[in-house]
Amino acid sequence: MTQPVRHDAATAAVWTVRVLTLFPEMFPGPLGLSLAGKALKNGVWALETVDIRSYARDKHRTVDDAPFGGGPGMVMRPDVLSDAITAVTEITAGPGGSGQTRVIYLSPRGRRLDQYLVRELAVTPFVVLLCGRYEGIDERVIEAHGLEEVSLGDFVLSGGEPAALALIDACVRLQPGVMGNGETAGEESFERGLLEYPHYTRPASWVDGRGCARLVPEVLLSGHHEKVRAWRLAEAERITRARRPELWAPYAAAHRDEWDREAERCRRRRRNTELDGMTADAARSGDQVEG
Fold this sequence. Notes:
Helices cover 42% and strands 16% of the residues.
């Protein structure tokens, strides 16, 4: 049996992900570049890959077999997978391990990955990701190890590795020190239950390929931070309501009381303004009569 291959030089207790895969050479892949790659090199997080074939029980390193009941494709064997899962989880549970581990099988029938789950996983010290291939894995492995099934979306990939890369990237960027501006994560899509607001940069006036001048919204050039904040929130709400009704519904329900209170405050301000105007008019009329 081979030991997990580490892709960093970290020795301290950092967020660690172990990937069980038939293709360990796919990692770190894009995770070795940009912010995630720099953080990996600096020991902010740790990545370990485990070649599932190293737990095969024959000289041909067989990891799959034909499905019972017939049908196309092959199914990954329970004995091989169970040995691999047990080996990597025992590393965590052993001396010095925290025991706080979540083992996830990346599957199109699993819970859809969202920012809420990403935040949970980002604070879990050890995460094990099982990347399936072929027609999937033997159901008994899922039952025996209590695997969490997680899906990247309602589509099918050739294997779990691309999904694992996406999940890891989403978690890594939430690790302390990975992103330059800590406020950035709090304003991104899904963090407040909303999609993100539009972004603009220089030049303030840009002419597109059809000769049409496209301008940056004036409020973003005003320098008025409170107005900019209000505009961004309004735009995020508008975009979410138009594009993602399933996100908008719970957000609207959670903020309905707040909106009702704000609407009542606006009505009171209008009434007070009207009363002030009527008082001023009456005063002017009285002055004219006395004159």
